[in-house]
From TrEMBL:
Site entry: Interacts with tRNA: 80, 166, 169, 282, 285
Documented EC number(s): 1.3.1.91
Binding site for FMN: 53, 122, 154, 194-196, 216-217
Gene that encodes the chain: dusA
Name of the protein: tRNA-dihydrouridine(20/20a) synthase
Reactions catalysed according to its record: 5,6-dihydrouridine(20) in tRNA + NADP(+) = uridine(20) in tRNA + NADPH + H(+); 5,6-dihydrouridine(20) in tRNA + NAD(+) = uridine(20) in tRNA + NADH + H(+); 5,6-dihydrouridine(20a) in tRNA + NAD(+) = uridine(20a) in tRNA + NADH + H(+); 5,6-dihydrouridine(20a) in tRNA + NADP(+) = uridine(20a) in tRNA + NADPH + H(+)
Family: Belongs to the Dus family. DusA subfamily.
Alphabetized GO MF terms: flavin adenine dinucleotide binding; FMN binding; tRNA binding; tRNA-dihydrouridine20 synthase activity
Enzyme class of the recorded protein, top EC level: oxidoreductase
Requisite cofactors: FMN
Highest taxon listed in the record's lineage: Bacteria
Length: 317
């Protein structure tokens, strides 16, 4: 979720669900070793629990980055072995690491040696034309021997040449049964499934076979799907937040961020799907996407956007 799940996105998602585990966008070790650490790692206590997702392939560099993550208060350090983008491949990390399980094991061990928070791995089920279940089984087994006990399984192959990152999220077929089999083969491990999940009913079905479910694109483009998570899966007695109440809390957050000099559009871009499926949602999105208006930093833009929610002709966009 590079360039997507920044602190504003996570703060908005936290409005909708108090208990859902949130993940940062992938941060490379180079960015933390040579760049502005605060810019990449700063987050608010209200966002917790939050996992820091790292991209890298050098054990020492990952250990350094993991230690920084723990110092900054992250609840988990996650190593990305699933991103197929060419930019990531040039750095010899992401999905191409699945071809080097012993290196991943060394990276996991190096991080575990310096932090007390959990170190987890997110990965695909195969790379390029490798379709056999044994490939991902052996990968998980090798990393588990290094002490990792939580695996987030994006249940598709990663095609390293010929497909864009977007196509890699859509074209390779989903094989949920591979993740289910991992749980049967490694019952002591926590197996979390990812890829193509759109509804909480689907989440319910997957939880009959695995320990957890990660939502990616659906949670971003249709964030209100998170509103029912706490009551349905965490037993929260709190009433489900309405879209209008979520918007009101978002406006409060925007007011605080405007006082810090934040560009309003940097926040609203993450909330454009709040009224997805509601009459007038297109007009609401259009107003909150107008950079000229957003640049004014005037929260009255929400009042203008809300007037469109009374347009029945745009029902179920």
């Amino acid at each position: 979720m590079m360039d997507w799940t920044d602190r504003h996105c996570r703060s908005f998602h936290r409005i909708l669900s108090r208990h859902t585990w949130l993940y940062t966008e992938m941060v490379t070790t180079g960015a933390l070793i040579h760049g502005d650490v605060a810019r990449h790692l700063a987050f608010t206590a209200d966002e917790a629990p939050v996992a820091l997702q790292l991209g890298g392939s050098e054990p020492a560099d990952l250990a350094h980055a993991a230690k920084l993550g723990e110092q900054w208060g992250y609840d988990e350090i996650n190593l990305n072995c699933g991103c197929p983008s060419e930019r990531v491949q040039r750095g010899a990390f992401g999905a191409c690491l699945m071809n080097e399980p012993q290196l991943v094991a060394d990276c996991v061990k190096a991080m575990r040696d310096v932090v007390s928070v959990p170190v987890t791995v997110k990965h695909r089920i195969g790379v390029d034309a490798v379709e056999e279940y044994g490939f991902v089984r052996d990968f998980v087994g090798t990393i588990a021997d290094a002490g990792c006990d939580v695996f987030i399984v994006h249940a598709r192959n990663a095609i390293l040449k010929g497909l864009s990152p977007k196509e890699n999220r859509e074209i390779p077929p989903l094989k949920y049964d591979y993740a289910y089999q991992l749980k049967r083969d490694f019952p002591q491990l926590e197996i979390i499934i990812n890829g193509g999940v759109k509804t909480l009913d689907e989440v319910e079905t997957h939880l009959q076979h695995v320990d957890g479910v990660m939502l990616g694109r659906e949670a971003y483009h249709n964030p209100y799907v998170l509103a029912d998570v706490d009551s349905r899966f965490y037993g929260s007695p709190e009433p489900v937040l309405s879209r209008e109440a979520a918007e009101a809390k978002l406006i409060e957050y925007c007011a605080a961020e405007l006082a810090r000099g934040t560009f309003l559009g940097g926040i609203t871009r993450h909330a454009l799907g709040l009224y997805r499926g509601v009459a007038g949602a297109r007009g609401w999105r259009r107003v909150l996407s107008d950079n000229r208006k957003l640049a004014l930093g005037d929260l009255a833009i929400f009042d203008e956007a809300r007037t469109h929610l009374r347009e029945p002709a745009e029902m179920f966009e």
